[in-house]
Amino acid sequence: MEPATGRANTVPALLMAGIAMLGVSMAGLMAVSIAAHAEDPVPVEITTVGLVCDGQFEVIIGGVDTQAEEMFDGPVHLALVARDGDFVELRMQAFERGLLMPEEVFTLGGGLAAAGLDMADAGQAGGLMPVVADDSRSMSGMADMIDQDDLMVEITATDIDVMLTQSLESGPVIRARVDGKPLVPTRESIARTDLYLDRISGAVTVNWTDNRVRDHKLPGAIRAAKIQLRDEKIFTGTCKPVAQRTF
């Protein structure tokens, strides 16, 4: 019965080889699984603090020779968004004269998208190199290169306060009368928002300024002169967390 012995020895050998290959495959799968889990991103902690601020608005509409002023009460809602303990976004919505105004979103590194601007409109929003449009006056004294990143957002925070600054410049560069000085190179439109929030007392101040260049023709003048007009809105108030607000 010798032939049976060789066949009997072959079966266990094949079985052991199969088990060994299965062990290698399982080890490979486990290694891939461990590597995949090792590459999983660390969860980002995002927190939002909602505030309701009661206060007063002061609106100043600039003109060539005169300006109009108005004051009224109203609240402002704020939402401070922090990522891993650092403030990265601020949302603000005001009630003016009983009307809910559009929400303003200020995002670090947001670019044009954060300002609610379509990328196709980047040229109008200052995303492209500005075109000099200043009649026949020479602009050779100016630098040819102008920063293309015309939307600037800064948010700084300490244990005491939070400060926000956003500036958006758009339109061509124009020589205009600015603050009484003639032929000052300036962008056609410059909008700026500044916010200061005291984290201890809750006191808040928000300042919106809108500078725009307009044509103004003096009586007897042959041609219109370009002048920069300024509109300003200031809010001062005191903020409380939404949970502490008494409605």
Mean pLDDT: 76
Distance between the termini: 100 Å
Annotation field: number of helices = 3
Note poorly predicted spans: 1-32, 111-149
Structural class: alpha+beta
Query: How many β-strand stretches?
Result: 10
Largest sheet: 10 strands, antiparallel
Share of helical residues: 10-25%
What's the order of the H and E elements? HEEEEEHHEEEEE
How many structurally independent domains? Answer: 2
Give the overall shape, derived from the CA principal axes.
Answer: globular
Radius of gyration: 32 Å
Share in β-strands: over 45%
- How is the quaternary structure best described? single chain
Would you kindly provide a brief summary of this structure?
The chain has about 250 residues and is an alpha+beta fold.
Description:
15% of the residues are buried. It is built from three helices and ten strands. By secondary structure, it is α+β, with helices and mostly antiparallel strands. The protein is globular, with a radius of gyration of 32 Å. The chain has two domains: 1-40; 46-244. A hairpin with a 4-residue loop joins strand 1 and strand 2. Helices cover 18% and strands 51% of the residues. Strands 1, 2, 3, 4, 5, 6, 7, 8, 9 and 10 form a ten-stranded antiparallel sheet that branches. It starts with a helix and ends in a 6-residue tail after the last strand.
